[in-house]
Amino acid sequence: MPSDRLADIELLPELGRHPRVDLGLIRSGLDPLRRLGDSLGITLYAKRDDTQPLAMGGNKTRQLEYYLGLGAEQGCDTVLITGAVQSNFVRSTTAAARRLGWHALVQLEDRVPKNDPVYAASGNVLLSQLLGAEIHRFPEGENEAGADANLDRLAEQCEQRGRKPYVIHLGMDSQPIGALGYVYAALETWRQFQDLGTMPDYVVIPSGSGLTHGGFLVGARAIGWDVPVHGICVRRAAELQSVRIATRAAEINAMLDNRATLTPQDILVDDTTLAPGYGRINDAVSSAIRRAARDEALLLDPVYSGRTMAGLISLVERGLIEPGASVAFIHTGGTPAIFAYQNDLVPEGSENGEVLPQGSVAV
Ligand SMILES: Cc1ncc(COP(=O)(O)O)c(C=O)c1O
C-alpha cells in the first residue's frame, strides 16, 4: 500500500478493516480554479476524481474497490450492475471487471426520455461495448427495486452457466459498500488541504444514489472535520434525497463502528438545478459547463459534474455560500457522457460551437 494511503487510513482504522481490491487509484489532484472562482467572488478548488486512471476516470473507481473487494473475498468471477443508458458506473464496473479478469454483465435502464441515436450509442455505451460488457436492457427508468430484481434474475442465469456472480444493487435494501471509497476520499481531501495550509469553508458534491455524498460526509465527521457538505441533487427532489442521505449516512457510519457524530443539520441537499429531471439538461447546467470549459479548461458532463457546478453557482448566487468563502468542488467525472449529449450541448447549426462561416476571420 502506498505510504500516503497508509497514513490516511491511520486517521480511521475502522476503514482499513474492509476488504478492497486495487484498481489503480491515484491520490487525485486538488486544483485551484482561479478564474472561475474570481468570477464568482469565491476561492474555488476542484478535487479531480475525473482524472482517476481507470477507463476515463470518475467517482465509481473508489466505490468499486470496496464492492469488488467483497466480491473477490467471496471468490466471484462475474459482476452485474444496472444503470441508465449513459451510466458511468456501468462503464467503470465493466472496466474494473476487465482489470480483475472477470466477466461484466450490465443492465441499461431507459431512465432518460431521449430519442437520440448519439445518446443511445456514443459515450459510455460505446466504451462499455469496447470493454466487452454483456449488455441487457431494462425498459423501466424509475423502478429501482424492479431493476435490482431483474438483475438478480440475470445473476441466477449466470450461476446456471457455471459462473460466480457478484451483484451491485443500487436500491435502498442493499448495504452501501461503495460509500467506503468516499469515506476514504474525505480523508484524502482533508490531508491535501492540511498540506496546503488552508481548509475550505464548504464542500460541494453530487448527490445521486447518495454513496458519494454520504460517504464523504461520514468520512469527514468521523475524523472531526465539520465542514458543511452540500449535496447537489442529480436525480431526486431535495425532500426525498435528504431522507435518503440521512438513512445512507447512518448505515455507512454503522460500517465504521459509528465513529462519526451526525446531526440532522449535517444533511444539506439542494435541488435548485435539477429540473426538468435526471439526465436532462437545463440552461444553468449548460452555462456551468461552458463557464468551466472556457475559464478553466475543465470538462464537466451534463448529468453529474455539470449539474453540480450549476448547483454550486446557484448556492453562491443565493448567498448560501457567502462572498469570499473558500469552496471545494468534488469533480466526480462523467467525461464520456459529454459525447453522448453532443446534440444538447452544441445543437446543430448553433453558433455556440464558434464554428465560423467559411471565409470569416475570428478576432
Ligand atoms: C460522474 C458521476 N458523478 C456523480 C455520481 C453520483 O454518485 P452517487 O450515485 O454515489 O451519488 C455518479 C453516479 O453514477 C456519476 O456517474
Describe the structure.
The protein has 15 helices and ten strands. By secondary structure, it is an alpha/beta fold. The protein has two domains: 3-58 and 176-345, Rossmann fold (3-Layer(aba) Sandwich); 73-168, Rossmann fold. α5 (88-100) links the parallel β3 (78-84) and β4. The N and C termini lie far apart (52 Å). Bound molecules: pyridoxal-5'-phosphate. Pyridoxal-5'-phosphate (PLP) is lined by residues 58-59, 88-89, 206-213, 304, 332-334.
Reconstruct the topology from this structure.
Elements: H1 3-10, H2 13-16, E1 30-32, H3 34-40, E2 43-48, H4 60-73, E3 78-84, H5 88-100, E4 103-109, H6 117-121, H7 123-130, E5 134-138, H8 144-160, E6 165-168, H9 179-196, E7 202-207, H10 211-222, E8 229-233, H11 238-255, E9 268-270, H12 283-296, H13 305-317, E10 326-331, H14 337-340, H15 342-345
Parallel strand pairs: 2-10, 3-4, 3-6, 4-5, 7-8, 7-10, 8-9
Antiparallel strand pairs: 1-2
Helix pairs in contact: 4-5, 4-9, 5-7, 9-10, 10-11, 12-13
Q: Compute the gyration radius: what is it?
A: 20 Å
Uncertain regions: pLDDT < 50 for 5+ in a row?
none
- Global mean pLDDT: 94
For the record, the CATH architecture of the largest domain stands as 3-Layer(aba) Sandwich
The percent range for strand residues is 5-15%
> How many strands?
10
Going across the biggest sheet, name each strand in turn.
1-2-10-7-8-9
Structural class: alpha/beta
Order of helices and strands: HHEHEHEHEHHEHEHEHEHEHHEHH
Terminal CA distance reads: 52 Å
| Number of continuous helical runs | 15
Q: What is the top-level CATH class of the largest domain?
A: Alpha Beta
Q: What would the principal axes of the Cα set say about the shape?
A: globular
